[in-house]
Design goal:
alpha+beta; seven-stranded mixed beta sheet; 16 helices; 24 strands; 34% helix
Length: 499
């Protein structure tokens, strides 16, 4: 009887489930979008119960569609949107508030209150003090939801990112855990000691008893409770989505780099057994922990990438579907001077300007929706080039190869723009589902489905290589024009006026 790994990929806009066979092929996939809530400007929330129900639904759906029984699932691996924060009552299993999403900016003012501690926070966690991360989201929920602190006193409140929330329910409340990669995104985890940090907990006034236990990224944690599937299935792998993608791309040696083009863009470089402190405002984070051995990474996060294409579809209505953007963008030879800076929720690495907002420059009477579409794709590539440059400078070595994945990596025009803007080989693999693949690999290693990492490395195969085709002077001019637009956005953000 053929065995599979079931990968649960809990993303920012949808929940997905994928079946992965022993050859590393994705043999089935089901996906379900869920509601995005925007209660105020720059606030973003999710209904954790809807996420749970959608994730269970697609897991059962992909198994049913492929006639796979629970007994054929060797293990479940989970990868998740990181930093998104939910608090729940362990007695009822219900969240006390909507989950606060990683994109949410409501706690920017709270971050400003801790500015004096920024150097200490960065030294311990490897992170920038920013509303992006979980700590200030937890603090906001504790201080704004009636009864939250009382539940803490009764030892009934639990915090988790989406991996913890799912595993708690999948295990029937038996497991309140996370892995080192997700813990390292909270602003509460000391990446050097591998423990929750008492000084940071005291600083943000967050009680230790709400935190999950931190486990290895590849381990058998337990099993699903009765009623989730026909028979219990091992829960055996966890990683935050970008760390999972790094592993799925088999960037397992020092210096290897991947970029995931999803809702945002997330670039990671494997830096091995030692964390590298960034001089260019990148993040130092834990890539994974296996057999107690921690592997570190440098990361640059771009907040808006695929979300920009969604905005063109849903906000402006200039495309009917995301798939239309390539043909529309390539129907013109250039953006004709139009530059989009998609700072809808601030600018991420390496700028870290939380007050920046999305802006269109260079619009004339001759500007068409095609020019805006092309400028949007260029903006995704430009933001990524900014992070590539910063990462190269931090590492002190040229980046000659960039492995890419995520939905937008299928866009040939975008990949060519990326190769043009930063003179590096852009390597697109045959399997673009690197995030889910990484979760599957971590789970499969834990249960012996695959013998070791060397076996997995043999499964990575390239689909297409993109290399620079544009004239260097044209690229230089494009980069300068982009930098000018970013400076203008930053100036706007810094020069706030009272109205």
């Amino acid at each position: 009887m053929t065995q599979y790994i079931l990968a649960l990929d809990q993303g920012t806009t949808s929940s997905r489930a994928l079946l992965v066979d022993h050859a590393g092929a994705v043999v089935g996939m089901a996906q379900q979008e869920f509601t995005q809530y925007y209660p105020h400007a720059a606030w973003v929330e999710h209904d954790a119960n809807e996420i749970l129900s959608s994730q269970l639904a697609v897991a059962r759906q992909v198994m049913a569609q492929n006639n796979v029984e629970a007994t054929q699932i060797a293990a479940i691996g989970i990868t998740n949107q990181r930093e998104t924060t939910v608090l729940w009552d362990t007695q009822t299993g219900q969240p006390i508030h909507h989950a606060i999403v990683w994109q949410d900016r409501r706690t920017a003012a709270i971050c400003a209150e801790f500015k004096a501690h920024e150097a200490m926070i960065q030294e311990k966690t490897g992170l920038i003090l920013d509303a992006y991360f979980s700590a200030t989201k937890i603090a906001w929920l504790l201080n704004h939801v009636d009864g939250a602190r009382e539940l803490v006193a009764q030892n009934r409140l639990a915090f988790g990112t989406m991996d913890s929330w799912l595993i708690w329910h999948l295990s029937g409340g038996a497991l309140h855990i996370t892995d080192a990669s997700n813990a390292s995104r909270t602003l509460l985890f000391n990446i050097h000691t591998g423990e929750w940090d008492d000084e940071l907990l005291a600083l943000f006034d967050i009680p230790r008893n709400i935190l999950p236990s931190v486990r290895d990224s590849s381990d058998v944690y337990g099993q699903t409770t009765e009623g989730v599937f026909d028979t219990p299935i091992a829960l055996a792998g966890i990683a935050g989505d970008q760390q999972a993608a790094l592993f799925g791309q088999m960037c397992v040696s020092d210096g290897m780099v991947k970029n995931t083009y999803g809702t945002g863009c997330f670039m990671m470089m494997n830096t091995g057994a030692k964390p590298i402190s960034s001089r260019h405002r990148l993040l130092t984070t834990i890539a994974w922990r296996i057999d107690g051995q921690t592997v570190y990474a440098l990361e640059g996060s771009v907040f808006v990438a695929g979300a920009l294409v969604q905005w063109l579809r849903d906000g402006l209505g200039i495309i009917g579907s995301a798939q239309e953007i390539q043909a529309l963008a390539m129907s013109v030879d250039s953006s004709d001077g139009v530059v989009v800076v998609p700072a809808f929720t601030g600018l991420g690495a390496p700028h870290w300007q939380p007050n920046a907002r999305g802006t269109l420059f260079g619009v004339t009477r001759g500007t068409t929706r095609a020019h805006i579409a092309r400028a949007a794709l260029e903006a995704i590539a430009q933001q990524t080039a900014d992070v590539l440059q910063a990462m190269q400078d931090d590492a002190g070595t040229p980046i000659v190869e960039l492995r890419v994945d995520g939905g937008a990596a299928a866009n040939d025009a975008l990949m060519q723009m990326q190769a043009d803007l930063f003179d590096t080989r852009v390597m697109r693999p045959q399997v673009l589902e690197s995030t889910a693949l990484g979760a599957a690999y971590l789970a499969g290693l834990a249960v012996g489905f695959w013998a070791n990492i060397d076996e997995l490395k043999q499964q990575w195969q390239v689909d297409r290589v993109f290399q620079r085709a544009q004239d260097a002077k044209v690229v230089q001019g494009s980069r300068k024009n982009w930098a000018r637009a970013v400076r203008a956005v930053n100036h706007w953000a810094e020069d706030e006026v009272d109205v």
